[in-house]
Amino acid sequence: MQIEIFNLKGQLVRSYKPGSQAAGKHSVVFDGLDNNGQSVASGVYLYRLQANERTLQRKMILMK
Fold first, then answer.
1. 29 to 3, 5, 16, 33, 55: CA distances (angstroms)
2. Cα(49)–Cα(54) distance, rounded to whole angstroms?
3. What is the pLDDT of residues 9-27, one digit of tens each?
4. CA distance 7 to 10
5. How far apart are CA 42 and CA 63, in angstroms?
6. Cα 60 vs. chain centroid, distance in angstroms?
7. Distance between CA 33 and CA 36 in Å, rounded?
8. Would you say the pTM of this structure is higher than 0.85?
9. Tens digit of each residue's pLDDT (9 = 90 or more) over 28-51
């Protein structure tokens, strides 16, 4: 499994790679930091979840 968060310019902001997990409900908390540990601005972001052969893309709002 892999989760990537992008800004609206398409730039990668954060990536999570928790690896293989058992089937079921899981959660990941986006703490508002980029991959370098810097705080990102409030606003609209896009995330992409890839698991096995499936890919899901959605919008999300970060409010601080």
1. 11, 12, 10, 11, 19
2. 8
3. 999 999 999 878 888 888 8
4. 5
5. 5
6. 9
7. 8
8. yes
9. 899 999 999 999 999 999 999 998
